[in-house]
Write a structure and sequence with these properties.
Length: 358
Amino acid sequence: MVHGEEGLVMMMDERKFRILQAIIDDYILTAVPVGSRTISKKYDMGLSSATIRNEMSDLEELGYLDQPHVSAGRIPSAKAYRLYVDQLLNTGRIPSDSDAAVKGHFLGRMHQMEDVIDHAAQVLSSLTSYTAVVLPPTGKMPKIRTIQLVPVSDTSALVVIVTDMGIVRDQVVQVASDLDSDALYAISKTLTERLQGLTLHEAVAQMPQLMQGMHENERLLQGLGKALGQQDEMTHPHVAVGGTSNMLAYPEYSDMEKARSFLSLMETRDRLADIISQKGEMAFTVRIGPETGVPEMADCSIVTATYSTGSGRQGTIGVIGPTRMRYSRVLSVMNTMGQQLSEMFGSQAPQKNKKLDK
């Protein structure tokens, strides 16, 4: 556990904890503030409504419950959800009832990596009813090994970029009409000497300096810079998103401005990748409300997990939902999804619930 929650749990007697757990479970299902009479009627605790009301008052003072309106019941605070999730994960009791559902969606499916990633996001969002984000395995960025210019016509040449990871990129650029194959070979040699060992992004940054020293080939270098920039964009991680509209079904996002802000964030793929990306060996990371550090997600929780290709490359799966998300269900689906993707990409499945970062 983190944030000193273990000590707080020890301070909280079992009765308070059971009441808090019931309030959280009820609010997750209904999104309606919970009163003492609701707990008394729906949950067999052997306690009177008055006793439950007193305990709820104590829980509010401890910061585990909020009262949205003077006459309304209570709702769990971010602190309560943190305790709830910590207890769920520290006991290691993540259910496996979603195993068959997840695996059934992948049986007999053999796709290109982007197809698998896209499909995984759709499956994850469908099985959780929240928004899902899946990032492909990432590793070191490819570095340029050689650049070759092959004449295509009097005014164009094919740029062939070979990287240290065996990736070949090619694109046609415009050249001066007086450049023959010998001249293009000489330019290729110079470019390889100057750009070898650089990533595509680093090579793009070098283009202005190259143009100063090779100004007679400015037209070619402008085309090369554009080609390198386009290829650099292609190396950015593919961000697969599923179930964006799922969030709009929850009352938390009935406010038009809040919904618009969330949908806008979902469209900024680079920022979304930064938010979801998970580093390290943790089995799960759970960020609740303000812990996300994202203003547009102040009322959300983000659950992420990693999967591996077995070659040092690691991808991330994530689920974004309201803070009252069904954590048990989400963790179960993600646990199985992570194993399934690891197996599909050629590595052994990670040990269940290996570590937890909260």
